[in-house]
Amino acid sequence: MKSNRQPSSHPAKSTIALFGKKVPLKNSIGKMILTNRPNAFATTSNSFVMETNDSFKIISVPDFFDEECQHPDQLIIDFMALSHPGPDLFILAIDSENTKEDKVVAQIKNLKATFGDNITANLVIMLPDAKSLSSLRQLEQKFNTQLAVASENLASECKKWCSDHKSFQYNYENYSEDVVLRRMTALENISFDGHPVYHHGTAGDSACEDSDNIFNIVLLGLTGTGKSASANTILTADQSRGDPIQLFKSVPSPMMVTTQCEVRIVEKPFERKVRLVDTPDFFHDQIRNPQAQVDECKKYCKPGQCVVLLVLQLGRFTHLERGILEKLEKKLGWEIRESTIVLLTHGDDLKGSLEKFINAHDRLKSVVELCGDRCHLFNNNSKNTKQVTELIKKIPDYKDLFPKFAKKQSRSCCIL
């Protein structure tokens, strides 16, 4: 997409986008710009992180050019929404392993193909040392861009670079402006506070901080049971329509669709921020690096910080699901049954009462009993949000976890 850049008065706070393959390098550059924020960019997550001070708003951008990136278009739209109508400055951080000319050129071309040729006027290539700067100096003229090495004067240099050019503005040639603006509205209600909001990176990246106060809902189960569809049912509760950019990928398929842990943040109807964690089938023979995925899940799945939804399909209890609760506990290293609700999907197939159905199926009944008789039924084709609010009421200690929700429900049940 080419940029229709319009004159800008350059407000006191300039927006800078940090691109690059190495998260620690981007963090280091961000810290150097935010000289009065020593604790900024503390996360190691390959996700969106935004930090600000009086002069700058800095967005650290995940590497959506990585071949293993699962949702590049979603990340691009998210970035456009976060930096709308366009950043004042793009910084491409080149690490010491990628200073060969062909590798640097490839990254520049990726940015141009995504955001338009005019991006180079607002682009600074940040190199690791003076030697690489000298060897790549010819790229300045070739691409009409700026090369530099980070120094203690980086903050003042950024101010100058921003003031020397009009702000970059998107013209939405490749991505719909309506989708970007709708995504921007959704993100306005999310506070980044220097922590990643949701995770799109590869397994092994740290996607959350132990110190955050966001309660986690972790969906576990085998392929095809409806984990992602159930997560979307929760995600869109109390919303007139789901944001297609925010939804988990969910299609009817015997093949694995979710291949890594994915995270979204939702506030309604819980009346507080809740992190939904969709997970792959840890027992599937096609999963790549299964232990890495389990380790990623462990970051969210901890006693007292989560509720587990063990997703099973109504009427389908395969041999692979025998002992699934115990197998998951062994992988995760604690008795998740204490914080687990059995979530049955395909509720539209149920004939009669759920209680009778469970009592008629011994293996299912055994799993439900191990989970303290906590069981719930979802029809993921239904728009009735009551099924979500009733699920919340089955979360152990939900009144303490979601006091505003409990109070709201109490008021709605009053007879006047």
Task: Kindly describe this structure.
This protein is α/β, with parallel strands linked by helices and 416 residues long. 32% of the residues lie in helices and 15% in strands. Helix 2 packs across helix 7. The longest helix is centred in the N-terminal third of the chain and has 15 residues, at 101-115. The chain is elongated and about 75 Å long. The model is unreliable at 1-10 and 193-211 (pLDDT under 50).
Task: Please provide a brief summary of the model.
This protein has 416 residues and is of the alpha/beta class.
Q: Cα-atom Rg, whole angstroms?
A: 24 Å
Find the structural class using helix and strand composition.
alpha/beta
Major sheet: order of its strands?
2-3-1-4-5-6
Helix content: 25-40%
* Mean pLDDT reading: 83
Counting copies of identical and different chains, the oligomeric state is single chain
Q: How many DSSP-defined strands?
A: 12
Span between termini? 58 Å
Listing every helix as H and every strand as E from the N terminus to the C terminus, the arrangement reads EHEEHEHEHHEHHEHEEHEHEHHEHHH
Question: In this structure, how is the largest beta sheet organized?
Answer: 6 strands, mixed
> Strand fraction band?
15-25%
How would you describe the shape?
elongated
Annotation field: number of helices:
15
Low-confidence stretches: 1-10, 193-211
What secondary-structure arrangement, pairings included, does this model have?
Blueprint: E1 14-20, H1 23-33, E2 49-52, E3 56-60, H2 72-82, E4 89-93, H3 101-115, E5 123-127, H4 130-135, H5 138-143, E6 146-149, H6 154-164, H7 177-187, E7 215-220, H8 227-235, E8 262-266, E9 274-278, H9 290-298, E10 306-313, H10 324-332, E11 340-345, H11 354-359, H12 362-370, E12 375-377, H13 386-392, H14 398-401, H15 403-412
Parallel strand pairs: 1-3, 1-4, 4-5, 5-6, 7-9, 7-10, 10-11, 11-12
Antiparallel strand pairs: 2-3, 8-9
Helix pairs in contact: 2-7
